[in-house]
UniProtKB/TrEMBL annotation:
A single GO cellular-component term on record: membrane
Gene3D superfamilies named in the record: Phosphorylase Kinase, domain 1, Ribonuclease Inhibitor, Transferase(Phosphotransferase) domain 1
Name the UniProt record assigns to this protein: non-specific serine/threonine protein kinase
Keywords per UniProt: ATP-binding, Glycoprotein, Kinase, Leucine-rich repeat, Membrane, Nucleotide-binding, Receptor, Repeat, Serine/threonine-protein kinase, Signal, Transferase, Transmembrane, Transmembrane helix
Organism: Senna tora
Compartmental location: Membrane
InterPro entries (UniProt xref): Kinase-like_dom_sf (IPR011009), Leu-rich_rpt (IPR001611), LRR_dom_sf (IPR032675), Prot_kinase_dom (IPR000719), Protein_kinase_ATP_BS (IPR017441), Ser/Thr_kinase_AS (IPR008271)
Positions with a binding annotation for ATP: K663
EC identifiers of the protein: 2.7.11.1
Amino acid sequence: MDPENKVFLLLLLLFHVLLVAAQTSTQDFTALSSLSEFWENKPPSWVGADPCGSGWEGIHCTNSRVTSIILSSMNIGGRLSGDIQSLSELVTLELSYNKDMTGTIPDEIGNLTKLQTLILVGCGFSGSIPDSIGSLKQLSFLALNLNQFTGNIPRTLGNLSSIDWLDLADNQIEGTIPVSDDQGPGLDMLLTAQHFHLGNNKLIGEIPAQLFSSNMKLKHLLLDNNQLNGSIPGTLGVVTSLEVVRLDRNQISGEVPSNISDLINLSELYLSNNKLTGSLPDLTGLNDLTYVDLSNNTFNSAGIPSWASSLPLLTTLKLENTGVEGQIPVSIFNQSNIESVEMRNNQLNGTLDIGNDYSSHLDLIDLENNKITDFDQKNSNIDITVKLEGNNICLETGATSESYCQDSESTVSYSTPANSCTPLVCSSDQVSSPNCKCAFPYTGVLSSRALGFSNLGNTTYYTLIEQSLMTTFQSQNLPVDSVSLSNPFRNSTTDYFQLDLSIFPSQNDRFNRTGVSSIAFVLSNQIYVPPEFFTPYFFNGNNYENYAGESSSKKSHTGIIVGAVVAVVAFLVLSILAGIYAIRQKKRAKKAKDFNPFANWEENKNSGSAPKLKGARWFSFEELKKYSSNFSESNTIGSGGYGKVYQGVLPSGELVAIKRAAKESMQGAVEFKTEIELLSRVHHKNLVGLVGFCFDKGEQMLVYEYIPNGTVMDSLSGKSGIRMDWMRRLKVAAGAARGLAYLHELADPPIIHRDIKSSNILLDDHLNAKVSDFGLSKLLDSDTGHITTQVKGTMGYLDPEYYMTQQLTEKSDVYSFGVLMMELVTGRRPIEQGKFIVREVVRAMDKSKELYNLQAILDSAITKQNTPKGLEKFVDLALKCVKEHAAERPAMAEVVKEIENIMELAGLNPISESATTSATYEDASGRHPYGDDDFAYTGVFPTVKLEPH
């Protein structure tokens, strides 16, 4: 062996040893490094090339793979990038209480198929919750509350068969509550879930009866503070596991279903501030009830129900403005746990008598604005707040000087007392702990969404919360010395109860980063189990500015140094290896190029063609730069996530569209080559033709024939100025169908387009339809009839069977084409304002009436002149294409044949290859439809990709 090879092998061995010494897989290190590029204020311990071995804070590993990221309350800013998908072994992702973590959740998160816990509480995330989260089949804990999310609840969450905790509360989420139907799953599929926390959003519509079933394990149903209407479904009563029900602060009407008394485990019931009618619900036998609020509804006038005096655990009874009348039975006040009775703004009369045996816990009786005439005070020393302002006793008897006739708001204050010591006077930044030590506490707000008590002045409750917090922190071996609660407050808008929480360190006077993050995780992940009267709770942590150093131990310092040394040595070894490799390659083949998947294509300088291509030309970068006037902005005719599209002119005078990939969206070279080979094999008048490509100087570009009239979507929306009458829409449908049928049946092997939609159907200068954008296309496996692949496509057009099974067939294109047909007859996008076009058509259809009773949703452009002939058959065909099961859908050849029959019925000759020229479609002003200077060519845009696993 020559000396050069010996040195090469020796260095290779050394590099192998260094890689073995590292405890982190290269893939995960690269992913974490890419993630952190988008972050500000990342942990200082994040240095070196070995996160698992050198103690990167918040990173936990198993067998060299990163399995959890826990960075709660780390003051991190920035956004979560799609690079997260590369951490393929990730089980837990927790980034809560990083207020400056903003932007959207990337779709790529759906590729983390092993993820079980996703917690992003109290950050600044916005935008829609991605549908791809529905692909996380092992997810059991999903908490996205306290952010700024908008859009609808993704129906794909119904796929989370392992979910236990679903918290989307305190956002700005809109739309209806999704349940499963022929378009996909819904929340009714989540039979193992114990928590639906959806309060304090902007949800609308009725509470679906289908949402509930006797198979559910649901404990907490929180739908408060939304805009829900309709009645309470009777199916709610079959979920006997329910413990907390909050439907308050909506617009719910009708009677409360009688079977609500079947909820034998119910402890808190909130139905206030709605439009409920009928009789007050019968709650007899619900012996676990502690808190009942039926206030501010329009129930029938009646006496106070008997159950109000017979619930053994009841602490709070609120019947304000409910129509109750008559005298209050003394037995209400005799219940052993009663704390508060609030019945203001009713028709109560007679004498208020609380008796001699009233509960020792009784704190408040609020009966303002009734008709009570007397107050029997058998015991003048009672320590109870009684409010009778606005009653006859105050208005007519001259008792206005009595305390119970004066409007007074009671204030409650509490702060954890010192633990048998004298509080210290600390510096301005420090606080004296309950154990009288000056320190920097970690702080936040601890809130309950369904508080089981109402006497906020009873310090026993706060003591129990403090004790349970300390018990949890100690059991988790966290460095906590003591906790302090203060400022109890009941929010009148949400009816949530909150406390300021301060947690003090046991080591020195401050926490390190790991300590703060671990404490926050215990609270965000619901590891802390509070007393029953405080559930369900949530925590919102504040930034911590006083970390003790930047590492947790000497060991981590050593790890960081070792990691840095390893990284430097590895870099040097790689540099030497690269140098030797370059010398060896130069000696062996001076004319050899860097690895290039196109190397086996012998470039022909005359024709520019390649042996494996049929007519596609190989362009150099300099050529395309010249043809597009140096990629000038004036030549830009479109842009998107893939990059930009430029108009170019070849030396022959032929117009082309040059699709130039942005650096961050380029495919791998092999994938790029595969796409070119695929495109070069298909040639049909209803498919956009590939003129050529460029793989040069680090660029990836595709050169298409120039299609001047934009997309069908532009024409339907009026953007292009082209009037789309019924005849033209039939021709568009026929052309697109023929292009698809060619891909499915004449291409060898068959090709599945995978992203058929109106923005991917272009119109040429004669308004012929051409299918474009093959970036997601796949070759069909002729043996199995399908391919198993990650789900990609566009929501609204996506085949639900493909989404559920990940098995792609040509029938997936048929489904998308059916949606396109619906779009052609209605002029509406597939999903508009939360309404799905297919469902809207099905709901409105009545085959016994003219035009199937669809006049209200048909595009007026096809109905204002003449009745569109064949429309009913067109709709029938579209409905066949969007059948739930692929086997029931027709093949594209059948679709083509049926559309041609409809064209004949409408008076068109489907065999004719000539299409009406654009001149026929000038608008009323005489402006030529292709003369719009603002028109942007979008036919070769990249698609929006949905990428769940």
